[in-house]
Every structure is written in C-alpha cells, then in structure tokens.
Design brief:
Layout: H1 13-34, H2 42-45, H3 51-64, H4 68-92, H5 96-101, H6 103-124
C-alpha cells in the first residue's frame, strides 16, 4: 500500500473517479480541436494547464507522495500532452487527416494511463 501523507485529507475513490472524468474531458477536447471546434487549446496542449495535470500535482502528489506508480502516471500524462500538442500542430499546418489518424496513439496512451490510475487506486484505497 502507498503511504499517505499525514495532515492532508485522505484521497478517496471519488478523487480517482474525478481524475478519470478529467481524462475523458481531455480526450473530448482534443478531438473537438482536431475537428475544428473553436475552443481554448491551452488545456489540451499544456500538461500544466489541464485539470488532470492540476489534479496530479495538487492532489495526488501531495497526498500520495513521490511513489514510482505516481511518477509513471505523471510521465504518461506528459506523453499524452506531447502527442496532443503534435497533433494540434499538424492540424494547424493544414494536415487535419494526419492529425485525426494520430488519435490512435492518444488512445493507446490513454489506455495505459487508465491502467496506471487503477493500479495506483488499488494500492492507495483499502
């Protein structure tokens, strides 16, 4: 079990469910951007500006500490945004079809992210 930091409110299953919802919203916003929606790209292309990145930094790390599982989750989160940023650059360069095809890489990373999140949750929540 991952040791929790004393003095902070305990992390709960609800916290992990909120992280999953934030992840789904990220994927939805990326897809919308690549299909031409007029929305702010910053939370999609910047891993520190998205709600999930803020959850990792402001909830998960302070409450769970610097565990290998959490570091791996954060790394995959960064890879998701690196990929999203690349796809958005393709879209802006007029290569929309190529950008949309790249969503399969996002799905692969997303699957890995969700698996890591579940592992972390199981090691954290009793």
């Amino acid at each position: 079990m991952i040791e929790k930091n004393v003095g902070l409110p305990p992390i709960s299953s609800q916290d992990f469910e909120q992280a999953r919802i934030k992840h789904v919203l990220f994927k939805s916003k990326l897809r919308a951007l690549l299909y031409g929606a007029s929305i702010d790209p910053e939370p999609v292309i910047n891993n520190h500006a998205c709600a999930l990145g803020q959850w990792i930094q402001q909830v998960a790390f302070p409450q769970l500490g610097d565990s290998p599982e959490l570091r791996q989750l954060d790394l995959v989160h960064d890879q998701l945004h690196d990929t999203a940023r690349h796809l958005y650059q393709l879209y802006k360069a007029g290569r929309q079809d190529e950008a949309i095809e790249g969503l399969t890489k996002v799905e692969d990373l997303a699957e890995a992210f969700l698996k890591l999140l579940s592992v972390l949750e199981k090691k954290t929540i009793r």
